[in-house]
Structures are given as C-alpha cells and as structure tokens.
Amino acid sequence: MSDKVYKVVVVGMGKRGKHHAAAFHANPRFTVAGICDIDPARMEQAAADLGNPKMSTDAAALAAEVKPDVFCFCTLPNIRSEMVKIGVEAGAKLIAYEKPIALTTAEARKIMDLVRQAGVKTVVSHQHRYGKHYQAVKEVIASGAIGRVHTVYGHATGWMGHMMTHLIEYMRWYNDYADAEWVMGQASGRGKLTDIHASPDYIAGIIQFKNGVRGYVETGAGAPDVPEVDYWWRKCRIGAQGTEGFAEVLTGGGWRAVTKNGVLSGDGCMNYDLDMPPYIADMARWLDDDSAVHPCNGEEAYKGLEIMLGITRSVVEGGQVALPLSDGPAELDELARVLPEKPVLLSMEANRKEYPA
Predict the structure, then answer these.
(1) Residues of the chain with CATH 3.40.50.720
(2) If we measure between CA atoms, which residue out of 27, 25, 58, 69 comes closest to residue 288?
(3) Is the pLDDT of residue 357 over 90?
(4) Across the strands, what pairs with 94?
(5) Mode of pairing for the β-strands spanning 255-259 and 262-266
(6) Of 170, 252, 279, 341, most Cβ neighbours within 10 A?
C-alpha cells in the first residue's frame, strides 16, 4: 500500500462539504490543503477542525494556488461544469462531487468530455452503498440465494433531483451494472420545479436493462410509503426480486430477504459517519492504482443520470426513449413546459408538508 499523501481542496462548507472535508481530514492518506465558501464566516468556522487549511471565497484562485490532487466540491447543482473545469485546469487527478452529475444531458456530456480528455478520475457521491444494510442485500443477491434476478426497484418520497440517481445507482449495482436499453416514464405536479434540485412533484419510470432485467423507479409525492421508517427523508426502499425470493434495503430501517434458504434480516441505517470513511478511502486506492476503480465512479454515475433524464424525456415526448440518449433540449425546461397545472395526488398524508395542494 502506498504511503503517498494527497492534497485536497474542498469547495462548499455546507452540510455535505463539511462531511467530505472532515472525512478527508480524518484519513492519513489525505491532507485538506484548502477550503472555499462564498460565506467567509462559515468557512472560518470549519477551518479549525480541518487543520487550518488555506481559505478563499474564490474556488478557481484557490485551486490554482494549491494545485490539489483531489478537487472536491459540494455546491449547488447549477454550477457543476464550472466547478469541474476549475478542477481540471488546476491539474487535479481526481474530482469528487455531489450528485446529480448535471441538470441536463448537454451539460453532463460537456463534463464527461472534459474529464475524459484530461484523463481525470471522477467520483460522484452515491455513498449510501457503503451502509452495511446496502452491502448485506448485495451479498444476498450475489450469492444466488434469490435465484435469477428478473426485477430491480427503488422508490423514495423525496423528489427526483435529490433521490433518483441514488436509487438508480443502487438498482444498477444490484443488477451487476447492466446497461439500460430503453426507459419510459410519467410525472405529475409542478411544485418542485422551482426547487434548486428542480423536479416534478412525482415521477415514475420503467427501465429495460440489456440483460433482460426490468427496473421500476419512483420518487416524490406519489411514491409508496415505507412505514417501517419514521424519518421522512429516509423512506427509501431499493431491492431485487428473483426466481426464488427477494432482498431489499430500507435506507432508514435495515434490510430483509426471503430466499430459498429462509427468511433473513438485519439492521442498518444511513449514517454519514460510517459511510464516508470507506468512500474516501477508496479514492486513495484508485489514486494509487488505476485498476482499483472507485465503486462510485463517474462513468457509471453518468449512465444512471442518462436513465433519469431519459425518463423525463419520455414524460415530455411520450412513449419509450432509447439509451444512450441522443442530443436534445434541456430536459427540465421541457418538463416545465408540458406538465399540467393540476395538483399532485399524494401516497400518504405525511407528504403534504413537502407537496402542498
């Protein structure tokens, strides 16, 4: 194992930025060399816990000065390509950032073209997969205990911009990262279109994978309840059905399976303190060894984003949408153009706080 220490710049000192910065600081393979935020007070408050790195409100200037090995940003989703460009120009070997990769296919392609041409590794923060309950479900599926997988599924009451790429990432993981062939979708409700993570209030999609497995994904006001989970943001269920049983994870409530070997279950809950350290450690492994590809690598995340944006295109165009996506207009702008002015119907009363009539 290498003992090289990699320099990191973290942009954004909000909740997620601090999670990332703290995990980098706690790992001896990294040193937080610089932090950035447009709010100086928030940045200064974080600095003491991160070894008092260089600080700046200008991400480009900081990155150019520090020349980090890792450029990490946890900023609003409307400036993704701008941040990636800063990391590439600063000579970063790896860029780590929040999901979704982008808000449009055009911007996502611009980002992927940029990092591919520069030979820069990318990691997208679908770090829930490090939870022991997510891992347990993968182990059950991979063991063959549920037989041949024919269906994968994921649903969450949080809205698309926050939740859907997470769900698709783990669905694809449980399906051995098979590529999608086509998607089809439907959506309702305009309330969240103005959110910074712009989304319809409810969207549901069907995914046909090239290995014959069918996927079903739902996010928002009409998604099913997960009554076993109390905390609203963790009402997520992701799993797989096979010829001899099923296995599924509840983001805030453990896991369970019915298999040819009997009924299985276990605990587990989304926990950044537990999920972030291995997520960060895998970045060091990938920097050390090109073959040790990070489980949350940008290439697979891009395929997941295409599935989500393909579902939104289906809402606009009607019918099935083939993957990979062709060029087209900005998906969310088109969605805003066609969604009718009618209130979304709720799956449960608890959703009314976020999706009022």
Answers:
(1) 6-127+273-297
(2) 69
(3) no
(4) 70, 121
(5) antiparallel
(6) 170
Question: If you count them, how many residues does the chain have?
Answer: 357
Mean of pLDDT values over 318-343: 96
**pLDDT, position 218:** 98
Q: Are strands 180-188 and 202-209 parallel, antiparallel or unpaired?
A: antiparallel
Amino acid letter at 13?
A: M
Annotate 297-348 with DSSP letters as a single string: BHHHHHHHHHHHHHHHHHHHH-S-EESSPPP-S-HHHHHHHHS-S-PPPPSS
Q: Is the pLDDT of residue 1 over 70?
A: no
Q: What's the token pair of residue 77? A: 């989703």
Instruction: Write out pLDDT tens, residues 96-153.
Output: 999 999 999 999 999 999 999 999 999 999 999 999 999 999 999 999 999 999 999 9
Distances (CA, A) of 20 to 44, 62, 78, 90, 278: 16, 18, 20, 20, 12
Q: Which CATH class is domain 129-270+305-338?
A: alpha beta
pLDDT digit string (tens) for 203-246?
999 999 999 999 999 999 999 999 999 999 999 999 999 999 99
Q: Is 219 helix (H, G, I), strand (E, B) or coil?
A: strand
247-268 average pLDDT score: 97
35 in Cβ contact with 9 (< 8 Å): yes
Task: Enumerate the CATH 3.30.360.10 domain ranges in the chain, comma separated.
Answer: 129-270+305-338
Cβ–Cβ under 8 Å, residues 185 and 318? no
Q: Which CATH architecture has domain 6-127+273-297?
A: 3-Layer(aba) Sandwich (3.40)
Instruction: In whole angstroms, give the CA distance from residue 123 to residue 165.
Output: 14
Q: Write the CB contacts of 260 (distance below 8 Å, at least 6 apart in sequence).
A: 145, 146, 147, 244, 245
Contact 120, 93 (CB under 8 A): yes
